[in-house]
Amino acid sequence: MTASLSCFERFRQFNLQGRLMLPNVWDAASARVFEAAGHPAIATTSGGIAYARGLGDAQRIGREAMLEEIARIAASVAVPVSADIEAGYGLTPEEVALTVRGAIAAGAVGVNLEDNGHGRLPQPLFDAAAQCERLKAARRAADLAGLPLWINARIDTYLLDLGLTAEQRLAETLARGNAYLAAGADMVFVPGLSDVLEAAWLAQRLHGPLNLMALPGVAGADPWFDAGALRVSLGVGPMLAVMGLVRRMADEAMQGEWPAMNAHNYGFAEAEALFARG
């Protein structure tokens, strides 16, 4: 069910005011836990959702299955939900528009749209001009619905090995970021960027807000915020941490023990209370 206009506007304000710590969830349970902790908005993680369904990441799940999961998550919480729609589940602007319309119908107030071709192109990333057309299609789809969808344009220049020097990679990221913003994106997302000085350089030169991602080895969000990022996303990190904990419990259970399960027990009554509202 489409979210209310006030929900769209609230999410937009959270992003513009800055210092938004955005958790990424993969099912209703993880969504409810983050909501109960006080997070004012949540986002989905395509990788986490795919893993929970027994699939690998990178659009192996398909459009309809992903939209079903987004709808289930959005319906489970009262806070705004942004949807990770990967590369739009299609190469063309028309396919991106179809996915965006589906995400809005599923209850999302924002989307991530990435420029990673996921092996369906001759090169790793969509050509910048082609990605701009896809972003324009996403914006038109939202405009036709009369809704201020927050479009987060993900740039995978740091996640993929493009054979660029550090200077070339930073310049390419900036060029793509400003082109994507001009095409209708509201924010630029650069997962994999781990250098605070590079983040500050980029934030100062982008013509719009910057979103970075929590990474192993980075202590917290404050350095990113101080560098000029307005939003920091947890990405697939929480799901991977849960998988790490499950692996530990699995190893302990092989020894007939369950200390990790005891240490991280959530409590049956607490879980029932979390879902009391249905």
From TrEMBL:
The keyword Nucleotide-binding does not apply. It holds the Pfam family PEP_mutase. GO terms for molecular function: lyase activity. CDD domains: ICL_PEPM (cd00377). This is Isocitrate lyase/phosphoenolpyruvate mutase family protein. It comes from Chromobacterium piscinae. The keyword Chloroplast does not apply. Keywords: Lyase. The lineage of its organism: Bacteria, Pseudomonadati, Pseudomonadota, Betaproteobacteria, Neisseriales. It comes from the Bacteria. PANTHER family: CARBOXYPHOSPHONOENOLPYRUVATE PHOSPHONOMUTASE-LIKE PROTEIN (AFU_ORTHOLOGUE AFUA_5G07230), PHOSPHOENOLPYRUVATE CARBOXYLASE.
